Amino acid sequence: MRLEEAKQIIEQTLPEKRYIHTLGVVETAIQLAQQNGVSKEQAALAAMLHDYAKYRNVSYMRTIAVELGLDDLLMYDDELLHAPIGAELVKRELGIEDASIYQAIANHTTGAPNMPLLDQVIFVADAIEPNRNYPGVEQLRQIAQKDLTQAVIATLVQTIEFLCKKQTVIFPLTIETYNAFVAEKR
Ligand code: DGI
Ligand code: FE
Ligand code: FE
Ligand code: FE
């Protein structure tokens, strides 16, 4: 699928605010891809489609999670579903066959240990795109310009801090990703 075609589908699928966020992720992902030797085409398409399932019916997404054997997810926040289920629906409904794009969409909320650079680009771009505005985002943007993997760690720290302050349950994969990236750095 071409980027323009995906863009039109996303414009029709997502509410305006989420569509604007998505275009910001595409712009940032293209830039990070170019700086880190990642395919610009894959980064742009993965970014365009990353929140495809964000507003899908939760019980429908839970059914697909069971089909895919992702039962662990069901005990955690429903917000986590749109990433792995989005990857699946982009394949089923839009015919996106690229396994790298599938994986980048699936990993965009929690990250994953050993995730490839494409996934790191989408993970960080989602957090720092120009429409994001939360305390600490400017520092994340600066880190991302210097070191993508360091930006993954800083984004995880920001997310985990945010979840802890709200006393929200943290999905183990988020912590596992943090541990794997920090251990790798030492
Ligand atoms: O879809 P976006 O809003 O663009 O961003 P996202 O997909 O990165 O995150 C969606 C939500 O998921 C966000 O409000 C934080 C939450 N989240 C991320 N990691 C975890 C989490 N929620 C829980 N409960 N546990 C996590 O590990
Ligand atoms: Fe998301
Ligand atoms: Fe994110
Ligand atoms: Fe997003």
TrEMBL record:
<keyword id="KW-0378">Hydrolase</keyword>
<feature type="domain" description="HD">
    <location>
        <begin position="18"/>
        <end position="131"/>
    </location>
</feature>
<dbReference type="InterPro" id="IPR006674">
    <property type="entry name" value="HD_domain"/>
</dbReference>
<dbReference type="InterPro" id="IPR005249">
    <property type="entry name" value="YqeK"/>
</dbReference>
<dbReference type="Pfam" id="PF01966">
    <property type="entry name" value="HD"/>
</dbReference>
<dbReference type="InterPro" id="IPR003607">
    <property type="entry name" value="HD/PDEase_dom"/>
</dbReference>
<protein>
    <recommendedName>
        <fullName>bis(5'-nucleosyl)-tetraphosphatase (symmetrical)</fullName>
        <ecNumber>3.6.1.41</ecNumber>
    </recommendedName>
</protein>
<dbReference type="InterPro" id="IPR051094">
    <property type="entry name" value="Diverse_Catalytic_Enzymes"/>
</dbReference>
<keyword id="KW-0408">Iron</keyword>
<keyword id="KW-0479">Metal-binding</keyword>
<dbReference type="GO" id="GO:0008803">
    <property type="term" value="F:bis(5'-nucleosyl)-tetraphosphatase (symmetrical) activity"/>
</dbReference>
<keyword id="KW-0547">Nucleotide-binding</keyword>
